[in-house]
Amino acid sequence: MFARISAFIVLASMFACGDSSSSDDGSATAEPSTSDGAPTSSTGEATTGLDPAQLYNCKEEGFGASPLAGPLFDAEKGGIQGELQAGYVLHTTQIYVKPEGGQAFFEMAQAVSAEALKIDGLIAFSVGSDMGCGVARTMGIWASEEAMYKLVASEAHAKAMAATLDVSYTGRVTHWSATAAEANAYTWDVAYAKLVDVEPSGLY
Question: Quick one: which of 3, 91, 169, 187 is 20 to 30 A from 199 by CA?
């Protein structure tokens, strides 16, 4: 079952990894980015001339990402550690950040990151970005939907949600149930494929 959560599940310094990290073939024709864009409405439609399609058609040729890692995940040892569950929850987000909102976005991302690491049930996460497209992305593995929503309900996350129109043009977000095998095989390409049919929004 697909459901939406706030795209401010930004678990680390989004823009710190954009130019130096490995791509994990994350250059899957992702979305948003123009240098002369304008804000969008809560439906993702342009209010001052920006067509969200311009952003979402930007090819992330400079995409870089941190390795998928977390308290219960070790890629070198096969992925999820300990006794495997029957199922997990995977999430992904895609946010097109306004140039003037970059610093505020970064600071809120750090606060949300710190909060996420306190939550029992976070398995692993990764963050990525493409500075050329002005996009920040996340992907994560959770032990349960309940664990994921603990972050959504946190004060740091609520503050970030309230600032979406100030710091970003548009975004997409989704989460879904997965088997242990699917969770261990989670990649940026899989994450992007799950976003393709999600409607962009100015509020997420």
Answer: 187
Residue 29, domain member (yes or no):
yes
What's the predicted TM-score (pTM) here? 0.76
List, for residues 107-163, the tens digit of each pLDDT value. 998 888 888 888 999 999 888 999 899 999 999 999 999 999 999 888 988 888 888
Residue 40 banded pLDDT, cuts 50, 70, 90: very low
> Residue 144: which domain range?
14-33+48-75+87-195
204 in any annotated domain: no
Taking only the tens place, the pLDDT of each residue in 55-85 is 999 989 999 998 998 989 999 999 999 999 9
Rounded CA-CA distance 117/119 in Å is 6
**What's the rounded Cα separation, in Å, for the pair 162 and 177?**
27
